[in-house]
Amino acid sequence: MTMSSVRKETEWERRTRRVRERDELIGRFGNRCMICGSEPKSRALHVDHNHATGRNRGLLCYRCNKWLPAFITVGWLLKAAQYLSHPPADVMYLEQEMRAARAAQRRQAP
Question: How far is residue 22's CA from residue 48's CA, in Å, rounded to a whole number?
């Protein structure tokens, strides 16, 4: 079978497949957001997917799904965590504090 002879999935088939996959995820992992652990109150959980591959990753609440943009990768998250836990500008402030402490010591020395 060539690529041109592969039948494209209809909208109905795509929607029913997604409902089945969502139900399977809920059955397997429970009806909770896979990032923050909250249960949905007014909105159903979203099926999150990898935008490059199209494969489902899991279920997310509205808030987590909204704040997890498509460009986020594991590598980006690790770099962001490093950046937030050790901001580069902290070095600048540490140097300023050290200079101020040395200047205060010099002023106090006889």
Answer: 10
Planar angle of CA 94, 99, 100, nearest 5 degrees = 95
CB atoms within 10 A of CB 51: 11
Question: Structure tokens of 72?
Answer: 């986020």
Q: Is the pTM of this model over 0.70?
A: no
CATH, domain range 1-69: 3.40.1800.10
Q: What is the pLDDT of residues 52-65, one digit of tens each?
A: 888 889 999 999 99
Query: What CA–CA distances, in Å, run from 51 to 56, 65, 73?
Result: 9, 13, 11
Nearest residue to 59 via CA among 44, 72, 71, 73: 44
CB atoms within 10 A of CB 26: 15
The full set of domain ranges for the chain reads: 1-69, 73-110
Tokens in use for 34? 């896979």
Contact 46, 58 (CB under 8 A): no
